[in-house]
Amino acid sequence: MKGPVKKNKSDFWEALRVPDIVKQRIDVIKTQSKFWKKLRIKLKKFIPIILVLGMGIFLWNNGAALELFMNLLRFVGQLLFAVLFMIVQFGALFWFMSRSKIERIRPEDPKLITFDDYWGQPRLKRLVRQWLGLLTDRKKFVSMGGRYINGLLLYGAPGTGKTMLAKAMAGEAGVAFISIEGSGFRAMFVGVDVMKMMWFVSKARKLARRYGAAIAFIDEIDAIGQSRGGVMGDSGGGGGGGMMGGGGTGALTRLLYEMDGIESKTLKEKISGRFYKLVGKKPPERDWHVLFMGSTNRPDVLDPALKRPGRFDQLIQIDKPDKAGRREVVGGYLEKIVHDDSVDVESIVINNKNATPAQIMSAITKDAVRIALFAHRDAVSQDDIDSAFLQQYMGIENPVEEMDEGQRWTIAIHEAGHAVATHFLMPDRRIAHVSIVRRGGAMGFVLGMEEIEIYGEPLSRIVRRIMVAMAGQAAVRVIHGESWTGAGGGTGSDYENVRIMIHHLYHEGFFGPPTKSQLPTSTRKGRRSEDDVWQELHNQTEDILRKHKSYLIEIAENLMEHNSLSNKEILRILNKDLLELDKQ
Fold it and tell me: Are 384 and 421 in contact (CB under 8 A)?
């Protein structure tokens, strides 16, 4: 009996083989599919053209449809133009508003100044050299693990030289300097102040990369840095709400962000670092730094976040120069002008105790030269400089035309009283000038300056100052037998100054224990009242002027003749020795 027949494996696969005729049919179908696919692709390119031609033929044959289409096309064009114009307009507006006037000083610029041009503050120059060393010798500082300070804040009275010090620091260190006014960040629209700050910092970074370091200086930084009071955009911080009134809060916030991230890598440094990492090399270390500096007259109003460590945490006070400093400033500016031998440096220094460097510069190089030029002289004299300072303190001369002689005589007596009382009660005070020519609203004045720098004084000296302030009206009573108007006016008058000084005496404890309460007008616990003190000092002042009545009349007569008297002329009347006169 025969068993089942085994099939060969090759026969099995042969049975499954696709017939050749089927393969041929499949190839034909594939070929046709590729053809139609290519045809569809080609037709898609021509469809827009066909549609446009068809629409064109339709519109050509239909006038109403053509007119409607042209109106629609015109409307779309106008709409697109309006949108584009608004985009361009607002873009140009924001670009223009985000740019402020800045000052750049590069190390090679001819207007560069150094510490040789900054006079009158030797202590400050020694102090800031420490920070300059960090900018000029950066490698040693970094190798010791040090981190750069980010900000220096200069504060002091106007005209003391804060901006000039920042420029001199940049010039001394040989680095770039870029500055902007704090008010330059203010803008009409919210967000523009932030753009301005970003633009300013980017310029500072660019200069720092080129020159190794840069000082970014913001003058009057309180314009954007005032305390926000815990509320973003409130009036205390100068911020505004809505689209209008961007007052600087955004600029302050951006400045804080930039100062915190000044050591972080820029986009360019990040890309460069990835490239170096890709090629297997270590990227070069950063060798540049931006030092932020600001100046203000009111450091107390600045936002606390601006003065915390890591930001403007180094505060430098810029005071008015002392006597030695004024001598250096005066000498420096005198070298810049043509002057004659009558100019006395010591006289200028003593007569202008409270002058700032800006006032000295303006008086000598601007006003004094102008006065000499208008007088048709080729050199500046001492009188020109004295007149220049007088214009700064008291204003330009504005004499009263054809004043009654009796009125002039009373004014002369009044000012003579101040001069005589100053001479005999305060011998340490120099009478620089006496005048009965109206200046700035004052019918006359006595300009006195301390012979020495006063940093503290006994309370008894304040009493003598009160008597000097009373002496003008007291002299009128001595000569005329009655008081006249003119001493008890508003702010800045003689009697107003007397009231302030008597209050000061009470607070300092001259009449008993010091007190911060308001000055009493009647006796309290044994204290003398204000009226009693006033009358007692006024009587003493009159007694002194009666004793020296001849000097009083002689000074008044000279004022009537010459309108004003200098220090030497006053001392000549008061019978000072010639030797002592020469020393003055």
Answer: no
Distance of alpha carbon 235 from the chain centroid: 20
Extended beta strands in 41-132, E state = 102-105
| Residue corresponding to tokens 């911080």 | 237
Active site residues: 415
Q: Do 102-318 and 405-583 share a fold?
A: no
Q: Mind spelling out the 3-state secondary structure of 240-298?
A: CCCCECCCCHHHHHHHHHHHHCCCCCCHHHHHHHHHHHHCCCCCCCCCCEEEEEEEECC
CB 293 within 8 A of CB 154: yes
Phi-psi region of 230 (alpha: psi -120 to 50; beta: other; left: phi over 0): left
According to CATH, what is the number of the domain 323-394? 1.10.8.60
Q: Is the dihedral of CA 551, 555, 556, 560 positive or negative?
A: positive
pLDDT grade for 555, boundaries at 50, 70 and 90: very high
Just give the CATH number of 102-318.
3.40.50.300
Instruction: Give per-residue pLDDT as tens, 265-302.
Output: 767 777 777 777 777 777 777 778 888 999 999 888 88
CA dist 471 and 531 (Å) reads 17
Q: What type of residue is 132?
A: L
Q: What is the pTM of this model?
A: 0.71
Burial 283-307 (b: 16+ CB within 10 A, else e): eeeeebbbbbbbbbeebeebbeebb
Judge contact between 419 and 572, C-beta under 8 A. no
Burial of 379 (0-12, 13-18, 19+ CB in 10 A): middle
The CATH superfamily assigned to 405-583 is Peptidase M41 (1.20.58.760)
| Residue 566: pLDDT over 80 | yes
What integer pLDDT is reported at residue 350 of this predicted model? 84
* Burial class (CB within 10 angstroms; exposed 0-12, middle 13-18, buried 19+) of 129: middle
Burial class from Cβ neighbours inside 10 Å (0-12, 13-18, 19+) for residue 378 reads exposed
So where are the chain's domains? 36-97, 102-318, 323-394, 405-583
Question: pLDDT tens digits, residue range 499-514?
Answer: 889 888 888 777 767 6
3-state per-residue secondary structure call for 222-242? HHHHECCCCCCCCHHHCCCCC
Which tens digit of pLDDT belongs to each residue from 186-205?
766 677 788 888 889 989 99
